[in-house]
Amino acid sequence: MNGARAITLSVRELAEFSARTGDLHGARTAGPSNLEGIRGHQQVQGQRGADWQAEFSLKATVEHQPYRVLLKGRADLVNEIASPPIIEEIKTSYFPPERLPESSKALHLAQARLYAWLYGIQQDFPGEQPIASRVSWHNLVENRTYSDTSIDNFSELAQHGIELLERYLAWHKLVEQRREAMHDAARSLTFPHGKFRPGQREFAAAVFRSCRDRGALLVEAPTGTGKTISALFPAIKAMGAGHVEQAVYLTAKNSGRIAARDAIDSMSASKSLDFLVIQAKDQTCPCRLPETASSCLDAEGTCVRTLGFFDRLPEARIDCLQAGQLTPDNLRQIADRHGICPFELGLQLLRWWPIIVCDFNYFFDPLVALTGLEENPGTRALLIDEAHNLPDRARDMHSALLDARAAQQLARELEPDFPEAARIVKRVASSVNRLPAQEAPETIPDALIKRIEEAIIALANPELAIVPGQHSLIEDERPRRLAEWSRELLRFVTIAQLLDKNFYASIREEKRKKTIAIQCLDPSGQLARRYRNARATIGFSATLLPLDFYRQTMGLPQDTGCTSLPPAFSPENQLTLRCDYIDTRWQQRDASLPELARTIEAVYRARAGKYLVFFPSYQYLQSVCDFFSGAYPDIATAVQQRNSSPEEREAYLNQFFEHSGALLGFAIMGGVYGEGVDFLGDALTGAIVVGAGMPQPDETRKQMQRHFNDAGLDGYAFAFQYPGFTRVLQAAGRVIRSESDRGVVVLVDPRFRQPAYRQLIPRQWQVCACTARQQLQGYLSAFWAQSAHD
User: How confident is the model at residue 270 (pLDDT cuts 50, 70, 90)?
Assistant: First the structure.
C-alpha cells in the first residue's frame, strides 16, 4: 500500500488498550516484582522439554488502511511440534487463578491469542489451521502453575486480532490528527514574551540541541531567567521539528506545576498545545477527599468509580481528547460525567498526551513510577525543574523502614474489629523482632522477605474480614492506616531487592523492639537507569553549585552539558553582608545570642519592612526567637511552626503578602518558606541566613560521607557542605525576584569566610565582610540611602 503510515506496536500494548474490560481494582492489586516475575517465568520455562522454545520472537506487518502496522512481541513459550502448535503466555501471581478477576484472565488470554495470530501469519497458515493459545498462571506462593488453553483456527484468531487492532487504530487516528495540529502550532510558535532575558536565549538553544541530538543538560539559571518557559518553549519547538514526541515536565513542588501551566498558557492562546497535569492521588480522587468520600465508597470500602472502569473508559478518553488541555479540574469534570476515577483516567492518557506535568515521584519512585512514562523509550524530553531537590528526594524514594513497635501498635488498634488483619500485622512484627541487631547486613534475610510477601498477599485478599461490624469505613481510620502500612511493606520488599554498596541497612533495638532500615546513600545509579527511557534529560535550577556535584548525584552522564547563566537582574539590587563577628557554631550558640539578636534588630531597623531570618533547626530558631522577642517586644514577629497545616502555612505567608506592616519572620532553611515562594515587591525586604545550612550529622549522613570518600570524592562536601549551601542559596534567593526588587542578604556564620565556602558564593553577590555590627550598620545605611536616591 503506497503512502501507508507506519506504526510499530507491541502485542502487550495492543492487548492492554483494546482487550481490557471490567473493574479497575483487578488491575491494581499488588503484584510480583520484576525480579520475581522473571524468576517465575524462568522456572516455568525451565520445566519444559526440548520441544519447547522460550522467548520466541514474533512479528508481522498488518496492512490496515491508511496504516501499515508492524506488530511484534515475544511469546514466553512455543511448541511447534505439538498438534496443534501451542503458543503460551506465562503470568506470575501471588494468587491462584480462582482469585484472579475474570477480566484479568480474559486480558491474558487475549494477549496469548494475539501471539498465536502472529505465529500463524509467520507460518503462512491457512484459515482452517488450528492453533492453541495457552495462559499459564504461576503462583509464587504455592510454587504451582495453572493453565487454561483455547484452540482456535487461524481465521478466528485473525478476526480477533483485526477487531482489537481496529479499536486501537480508531483511537490512534484521532490522536494523530490532534498531534498534527499541535505540531503545526509548534512549528509556528514564537517566543511569547517578545524578547529574551539575559541568558534565556542561550538556555533555550541548549535545550533544543539536547532534544535534537539526544543529550543531557544541566543549567544553573539565576532567579529571573525564566527557567520554566526557557525549558518548555524549545522542547515544544523540538516536538514540531519531529525530534521528540513528548515533553515530561517534572516538578518538586506544587508551585512548579503552577508555573508550568502558566508558561503553557502563555504560549497557547489558540488552545492548540495539549497538556495533562497529574496531581497527587490524595488531592484528586473523590474517595480520598472528606467531602466526597461518602458518595464514592460502598459498604466494603471499594470506590464505586473503579467498578466497570475499563468499560466506561473509551468514551471518557474521547472527551479528554476533545478537551485537549487537561488540568486536574477538567479531568475531574470529565471523570464525573462518566462515573470513573479521575486519577486513573489521567494515567490512562499518559502515553498519548504531548506535554505531561507531574511530580518527580511519578517518574523516579520505583513504587509509583507510571508505566505510561516508560513506553516508547527514546521519544521524550525530561525537563527536571528545581533539579537541586532531586538527589535528596530520590534518596527518600529509595529508602524503606520497618518498625516492629509501630506494627504492634497498629495490631492493637485493629484487634477488636479486624482480628485476622491484626494477626497478619503481628506476625510481621514478630519476624522483625527475631532478627539480631546489626549494622550493615549485606542482604535482608530471606525469611523476613517471605513473611512480608505473605502479609502483602493476605492483606490484598478481598475475602479478608476487614468490614468493622457496626463501624463506618468512612469514619473508621484503621482500614486506611492498614492500607498505608501494606504499601510500606511493598516498598520495603522492593527496596530490599536493590540493596548494594549504594545503600546502608541496619537492624537496631530499642526497649526490646527492633527497627530495620534501608537508607539509600547515593541514588545516582537508580536515576541513571530511569534516564534511559528519555531522548533528552534537562535539569535546571537557580541553585546548582557546584554543577559537577549535581551532575554526579543526579546520575547524569559525564558528557552532560553543564552551564551557568549570568544573573538576570542587576547585582546592584542586592546588598550581601557577611557577619564575621558572630560564632554560630554549636558550642557558641548560647553565648552568641545577644549579639545575634542585636544584629537582627540592626538589619530590621535600618529600613522598616518585612524580613525572614532562616535557621538550620527548630531548636535554634526557637531559642533565638524567644530571646529576641524578650529583648525587642515592639517588633512584630511570625514564627514557623513544626508540622504546620496547609492553613497555618497560608496564614504565615499572608502576613507577608497581604499586610502592609513591618514584620520579622523566623523560618527554617530548606523548609516550605526557604524555597519555591516568590516574595515579589514589598513582600520581602531582606533575608538573614544563620548557619551554613548543613544537615544534621546523623548516622545516615555519616554513612553518606564514608560512601563518597570510598568513591574517591570529597565525602564531607558531598554529604554536608554542598547540600547545606544549596539551602543557603535558596533562602537568600527569596529576596530578589524581579527587576524592581531591592533588598539585603546577611550571612551569619564563621564558615562563610572560609575558602571552601567563598568559592561557592555567586560572583554577582559582591559580598561585603563585616567585622563588627557598626560596620554592618554603615553598609546598610549607604545601601538604603542609594536606593532612595535611585
Answer: low
- Give the per-residue pLDDT at 33: 59
* CB contact at 8 A, 595 and 773: yes
Could you give the CA distance from residue 654 to residue 736 in angstroms, rounded to a whole number?
19
Query: What are residue 768's phi and psi, to 5 degrees?
Result: -105, 120
Q: What domains can be seen in the chain, in order of their start residue?
A: 5-170 (3.90.320.10), 402-520 (no CATH), 571-789 (3.40.50.300)
CA angle centred on 687, ends 682 and 689, rounded to 5°: 170
SS3 364: helix
365 membership: H or E segment, kind and range:
none
Residue-wise pLDDT for 165-181, tens only, equals 999 999 999 999 999 99
- How is residue 295 annotated by DSSP? G
Question: What are the backbone angles phi and psi of residue 224, rounded to the nearest 5°?
Answer: 95, -10
- For 138-160, the pLDDT digits (tens) are 887 778 889 999 999 999 999 99
Find out whether 535 and 381 touch, Cβ atoms under 8 Å. Answer: yes
* DSSP H helices in 675-772: 699-710, 715-716, 722-732, 755-758
Q: 664 and 631 in contact (C-beta within 8 Å)?
A: no
* Under 8 Å between Cβ of 687 and 612: yes
What letter would DSSP give residue 696?
A: P
137 within 8 A of 44, measured Cβ to Cβ: no
C-alpha cell at 552: 554526579
- Report the predicted TM-score, pTM, of the whole model to 2 decimal places: 0.92
Helix, coil or strand: residue 125: coil
Written as nine digits, the cell of 615 is: 535557621
In the DSSP assignment, the letter for residue 642 is T
pLDDT above 90: percentage of residues in the chain: 69
Strands 686-690 and 144-153: unpaired
**How far apart, in whole angstroms, are the C-alpha atoms of residue 166 and residue 412?**
55
Q: What is the pLDDT of residues 183-219, one digit of tens each?
A: 998 998 989 888 888 889 999 999 999 999 999 999 9
381 with 236: CB under 8 angstroms? no
Q: Which of 251, 220, 246, 249 is nearest to 232 (CA)?
A: 249
Residue pair 14/114 in contact (Cβ under 8 Å)? The answer is yes
